[in-house]
Amino acid sequence: MELETTAGVPSLASALDHKECRRLHRKYGTTYYFATQRLPKRLRRRVHALYGFVRVPDEWMDNFHSDTVTERDLKINAYRNEFLRGMDGVRPSQPVVRAFCDVAREVTLPLEEPLLFLDAMAMDIYKSRYETYEDLREYMRGSAASVGLMMCDLLEVPTNDRMRAGAVALGEAMQLTNFLRDIGEDMRRGRIYIPQEDIDRFHGADEAISTGETNQAFIDLMKFEIDRARSLYCESDNGISQLPTHVRKPVRLARILYSRILDRIEDQGYDVFTKRARTSRMEKFLTAWRTLRP
User: Fold this and answer.
1) pTM (2 d.p.)
2) For residues 110 and 105, what is the distance between their CA atoms, to the nearest angstrom?
3) 183-207 pLDDT per residue, tens
4) Which CATH topology does 127-294 take?
5) What whole-number distance in Å separates Cα of residue 146 and Cα of residue 53?
């Protein structure tokens, strides 16, 4: 197995490790992957590595099968320790951790954001409901905003407060979009990410979520949350506009395509229990042509 050397620093990862990250990205993050392919090649490798790093523990938390709470807790702690040792130059056993540590060391990525992300994954082990939106935002600070902020570092974007606020807003918008699209799937896992205070606002929405029925109360709840997500996307535009062109256009493409999932939810009558809202391949290509052209 041949390891690479970057900027004179021996790599922890092989080309196969980076290939695995790309495979995971292409398989599970189709919209993100599509937009990432529009970045310069050297930056794509970093984004693939980030996706692989966050996807593996996320998959553990979502599809735990027969794993007990204790086993999932041990897994996430072992993953965290492998990452920390990897950042100190000790080769991790996980391919995605090896690849991510390499790109993180290339840009001297601060440890705070990756650790906040892993803390959020650990929250999924023990917490299945959120009382208020502020409670949910605390979770999203790790699960989503941290990823946006890591992207800024991996793309080597000089940031200011406006850009970082935009990255946080975009992360939250995309995460909230996921929550709305995946209500049915999450319910089957015993989780509800929609804040209880919002559900209580629309009498009958709780029953709809429990039974998987799209009643008027549930539709009104979805409209409320979709408006919130769209406001976050608009807020993120302030930061996106500050990005260099070679980064700004692919990020804007991801933002547009992901926000279109909200349109698809509306198109299917807010039924997120029996249908998965997604953008078509043709829509992706047409949007890319419009967004990326000079």
Assistant:
1) 0.92
2) 9
3) 999 998 889 999 999 999 999 999 9
4) Farnesyl Diphosphate Synthase (1.10.600)
5) 13
